Amino acid sequence: MAHGKHGLKIEADDSLEQAMSVFAAAIADPSRASILCALMDGRAWTATELSMVADVAPSTASGHLTRLLNNGLVVCLMQGRHRYYSLAGTHIAGLLENLMGVSVQIRHTAVTRAPVPLRYARTCYDHLAGELAVNIYDALLREKWIVADGSSLTAAGKAHFTEMGVVMDPRSRRKPCCACLDWSERRFHLGGSAGSGLLSLFETKGWIHRTVGYREVRVTESGSSALPRWFNLNS
Q1: What is the C-alpha separation between 75 and 72, in angstroms, rounded?
Q2: Which terminus of the chain has a smaller tally of CB atoms within 10 A, N or C?
Q3: Residue 97: inside a domain, yes or no?
Q4: 133 and 41 within one domain
């Protein structure tokens, strides 16, 4: 028995196609999909909380979580007597975000009908997504604070992020930046360490407000003033 890259338990002679099928089946159940979508807010949830989101009994939710754990989609964190579940990483969040985009396109023939608050600003695991995030990404390109493909900050971008107070771990193996295709806007927003650092800063500064259990992000009064100033959004 061997373990695949994402924790899948597959026989050594299984084909890639079989492994993909097992992985896809773990996501396919509507209740498990609901659980995964809830975890896209980047926080850790208890099994009881997730059972309420999925509208299933706690025992049923535990079974779903075990399947997601076994397939490397979520991880379990112990805090005293409590167990908390979160997505296994940014690679899983990226996969789910892409699935959402494909699903919306198929169902609505490329016409976005996402709720307005969700479309304007939401979390994509540990960074910001939605119309606001896309506008910020466009500003980063316009001001030449990121390179053309969004893979890294320029010298001017690093200076601007430092001035803002964005904290990025220089020892992290994660990409400093990456262009994530936004499923509702069909354009790019900022991911990677820089995207995560921005979201953390926005929360710390009180520029955005997040409600536990929801991906929607509300821009506060101070954020409405600060964000256009820092990113020249009105230019």
Answers
A1: 7
A2: N
A3: no
A4: no
Q: In angstroms, rounded to a whole number, what is the distance separating the alpha carbons of residues 41 and 208?
A: 14
* DSSP structural state of residue 100: H
Q: Is residue 51 in some structural domain?
A: yes
Contacts of 135 (CB under 8 A, 6+ apart): 231, 233
Domain carrying residue 208: 116-231
Q: What is the DSSP letter of 162?
A: H
pLDDT tens, position by position, 37-94: 888 877 788 898 899 888 899 899 999 999 999 999 999 988 778 888 989 888 888 7
- Mean per-residue pLDDT, 169-180: 80
DSSP one-letter code for 216: B
- The helices-and-strands tally (H runs, E runs) of the chain is 10, 11
Q: If you ran DSSP here, which 8-state letter would residue 117 be given?
A: H
Tell me the C-alpha distance between 173 and 41, whole Å.
22
